[in-house]
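Hi F.,

I've been meaning to write this up properly since the lab meeting, where we talked about keeping a consistent format for the predictions we share between groups. The idea is simple: the sequence comes first, exactly as it goes in, then the structure tokens exactly as they come out, then a line or two of notes. No screenshots and no reformatting. I'm using this chain as the first example so we have something concrete to point to.
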Amino acid sequence: MGLNNVPENWNLGIEDPFVTKEFGEASKFGGEVYYVKNGEKKAIIVIKKKYISLFSRANIFTNSEDKSFLEKIISNLKRKKIPYARIGNTMVGPEKIIDLENSKIIERHTFILDLKKSEKELWANFDKKLRNSVRKAEKEGILVSEIKNENELEAYYNLSLETEKYIKESKGRKTFSLQDYSFFKALLENKLGRFFIAKYGGEAIAGVLFLVWGDKSIYFHSCLSREHSSKQAPSLIQWTSIKELKRYSIKEYDLGGITIGLDRGDSRFFVYEFKKKFGGKLKEFYNIEVELSRFKKVQDSLIKLVYGK
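Output, unedited:
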């Protein structure tokens, strides 16, 4: 299957933050983590268990698009009686379609900003409404800073819990769940995660988390106080983060996964609209969902029974 402990020199040659030992070590607070390596081909497998293997699901993060390497991983998961596996997630995945047995391909997209451009160029590429939102937040007195200590991280996490509650109650997304606090703490301590927080009158009203590795960053998570949503803190916090990450010599600013082709009745449409305003280049990638056993259908039925569609 793989090793529970991080193999020596694991990060050598790794460009994707999801395949780093830092992400793997943080993920162990949410499930079992395995490291698989074959030469330069590497993968981190996170298995989230629910009582018994029948309810378990595996998430595979890898730097390889080699079919035989992935097939061996899938074969090992079958032996562990895991019904379902997904290669990638809404933010990362292979850049080409890999045809695996009993698999389903999900097309994903993201917007990439080129931070080699000057601040002036980046600002000019913003949609006019986005620039106005940034100015409004500044006029409202919103202050944005990077989180450096655990006290501020706790404020970020508490706000994240409020955001989770809002999504569950108002959007009906009952399957949405926030990672354990230990996950965020580990990312802060190992510096793979860079957190920014927006405050109004000393109160945390918005926050973002980026995974930063090498010269790349990925917008991974955010939280927002609905009470203060009109103050446009998310726009200012993104612009501030762009400028700060440029100073860290980050060259690629990935705005995180989006879904295209939706109508305005879907809440994900507005996520797409917001991220589109930054003027980034649209990039395509894929997730691969693999049915490992007939219990995958049983698992899906149970999830629908408990959570709804």
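Notes:
The two ends are 33 Å apart (CA to CA).
The chain has two domains: 17-107+286-307, 117-250.

If this format works for you, I'll send the rest the same way.

G.
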